[in-house]
Amino acid sequence: MVIQQPELLQVPRAGSAQWRGTRREQNDAMFLSDYDPARGMLIALADGIGLEADAGNAARAAVEAIRNDFLRKEPMESLHRQTLRLIGTAHAAIRGLNDRNEAEGLPPVGAAAACLVIRGRRAGFSSAGNVRLFLIRGGRMLQLNRDHLLSLEAEERDILSGEAPDIDPEWAKRVTAFIGMDGLQKVDCQQTPVFLIPRDRILVMSSGLYGVLSEEEIIELAGNGPPQQAAEAVIGRVRSLGLLSQSNISVALVQMGQ
Amino acid sequence: MQPMEYRMYAAMAVGSRQEQQDAVNSSFPELQRDLGILCVLSDGMGGLAAGSRASQAVVQTMVSTFHRSPITDTPEQILLRGCCFAQEAVLRIREEAGETGATVVAVLIRDNRCSFLSIGDSRIYLCRDRALIQLTRDQNKRSRVERQVGFGRLPEEALTENGLEALSAYIGMDGLVQVDRGSHSFAVYPGDRIVLVSDGVYDTITEPEMAEALLLPGQQAVNAMISRVMSKHLPGQDNCSAALVDCLAGAD
Asked: How far out from the chain centre does Cα B30 lie?
């Protein structure tokens, strides 16, 4: 006999914060929906790639496409298929933007992006690029999605072909997949949903936070207090460092109910 | 940093197949203080003549690569190099015995951090606070088709085609390039349990059933998981195997 836990409704609470850093433009875009018992909750985050103002347009176009698709369609499909479709929709939006850019002689743009949908106690996600999703459970952090970075792929390629790993540090941080790119194939998606338990938190963050705060600091700041205050605390800590060069940062945080 | 202790347990059953084509092993527990611990599970390709040889070769090669690697190698390098050597070993078996292949899932825990890698459709889960989180991605045709459907490149009907469970990556395939691994190692804590299973387990029992088995200690947990699988009496039950690495607070 298997004793199963009933799926009691838990309304997740969410918060978010952004900072432009030392950049002239904010090229990240983010959307958090309210929780709807049928649709669930969406968090979408995109980090634009391209020349400054155009990159921001790409990120906003991606997030708007995800938002519209999420709010328009009743979710009849599994979480992973829904999030794949949302990323696909954003990809199509940026491809459309690039077609118009090309006609005007402007360079192409793209965006690293991730979307997370929570329905009941289950979470599904898809991502391309280097926006990261972390599960914070019991004060411990686990990255849920994969980074698409040249450093990781070059290491695999070199070792599997019997070569010594040889990666140019200048290139290591380049993303190898982003929405809007030609022939995008490498979208990360988990086929089975993550089963969430009370007080679990999911943190979604753009690449500007990498290497700025330690894992311990992120757990301390994002793992405590109401989600909105916690997201602001993460940004506040980065601002307090007073770094001479700091990329755009975006943080979204959702916590499952008690 | 308080050093931790790791204990590994495993159980397996043949199911309704004629032979056991799954293989499981780990590094020498006595070496864990210096080198950490490696746990590997491999599922030989069903229906292929040399499946059990392939899975045994994968596990042995991964473990011997771990034991021979210099301490200066990163866990990620050790895991990837192990796959490279395992690929060579399985290709040699292919030359002798005909078409074969095997999946691999491996976890390497060192300095309280866990790195993992998968090729194929065996799985790794982290059990934290009694709830399972699947760490690996299934590398099969279904996951590829779902991406194409999500991007509107294929119609929905493509998801009803036969053969979607066919592997898109395995040790022994020509031109192996597709490895699934965590982008970064993650910190493990006392009480964390890392579970490796072949598809004969997760195709038959649900995640809640696995989680229930994991309420039990050590060997009893993996025994319960395999017993649960066999209690279903499914016709055509595949080989099933489960390995468990328990992360424990170490003695001073």
From this structure: 22
